[in-house]
Amino acid sequence: MKWKKFTLTTTTQAVDLVSSMLDDIGIEGVEIEDNVPLTERETKGMFIDILPELPPDEGVAKVSFYVDDDRDIEELMKQVEEGLDELAVFTDLGQRAIAASETEDKDWINNWKQYFKPFTVDDILIKPTWETIPEEHKDKLLVQIDPGTAFGTGMHETTQLCIRQLKKAVDSGTKLLDVGTGSGILGITALKLGAKEVWGTDLDENAITAVGENLEANGISGDRFHVLQGNILNDPGVQEWAGFGCYDVVVANILADVIILLVDEIPVHLKQGGLFITSGIINMKEQAVLDAFAKNPAFEVLEVTRQGEWVSVTARKR
Ligand SMILES: C[S@@+](CC[C@H](N)C(=O)[O-])C[C@H]1O[C@@H](n2cnc3c(N)ncnc32)[C@H](O)[C@@H]1O
């Protein structure tokens, strides 16, 4: 589909009002660029570990919106200008300049698919559901994934670190808890490796649909992978649902700060001798994660593995 991009230069204080005005006239999904640093809460909510260095905020913001070619652009821009006139009465709109850029061909939801190609993690072939199996990989253990809008194609280093640890940890009796399951890639790989059953949690509701679809794509029955939206860190309902003292392996590929909190929650869910495989840890936070494990007498760290700038820590419950 063809889209035209318009960028309004305005003030940071006007951004919320402008976005709401655009929404009122049927323009959804605006893009905002400014130099206002994210709050700690925003950073956590977006699962970002390292923030870019920003120049000082000078109160200027750019609000971009996309309009598809089918719309009457002249009429729409008239409505935008009228909306801005109304806002100008009670807020400073700054420059209020609108720039139109070249028409682009964008499919926001599906654009990433062109970068997701079949790849291997040792003897496992991870393949988008829509691609065919490459001839040279026909002998590999096949995992098919369409993450949809959930996280987890398997291409990220942290997912691959977890998969390599799962290969060592999983056997035919394994009951696995997959915290932050996303597309379900880790749980599904564990099932393909022979695990008996998986329980997965995620904060993201999209994970529920993604896991269901990916189980189907892999020919795995739904009663082997149970999934729940919620936070095992602070929701007694989720903790109860997952169950206590019953897992051979827990895997969590999230972020160092979340792993540090999980170090105190996971022991109650693991069997004695069970393994906690963690990743999502950027190398500069490796020591903080190791310190958290060292502080908890329930765990002994067995192995630390690394790929690129990412780290995985595997610990055993004593
Ligand atoms: C990096 S993705 C990992 C997805 C997938 N497991 C993989 O390895 O590719 C992290 C996921 O953890 C989820 N998440 C973050 N904090 C969580 C928490 N406290 N409990 C459950 N899920 C969480 C996010 O929504 C996201 O889907």
Automatic annotation (TrEMBL):
Report which reactions are catalysed by this protein.
Answer: L-lysyl-[protein] + 3 S-adenosyl-L-methionine = N(6),N(6),N(6)-trimethyl-L-lysyl-[protein] + 3 S-adenosyl-L-homocysteine + 3 H(+)
Which domain of life does the UniProt lineage start with? Bacteria
User: Which GO terms of type biological process are on file?
Assistant: methylation
| Binding site residues for S-adenosyl-L-methionine | T159, G180, D202, N253
Cellular location(s):
Cytoplasm
The family note in this entry says:
Belongs to the methyltransferase superfamily. PrmA family.
Instruction: State the EC number(s).
Output: 2.1.1.-
Protein name listed in UniProt: Ribosomal protein L11 methyltransferase
Q: Name one GO cellular component term.
A: cytoplasm
Q: Which Pfam families match?
A: PrmA
Q: Give a yes or no for keyword Transferase in this entry.
A: yes
Supply the alphabetized keyword list: Cytoplasm, Methyltransferase, Ribonucleoprotein, Ribosomal protein, S-adenosyl-L-methionine, Transferase
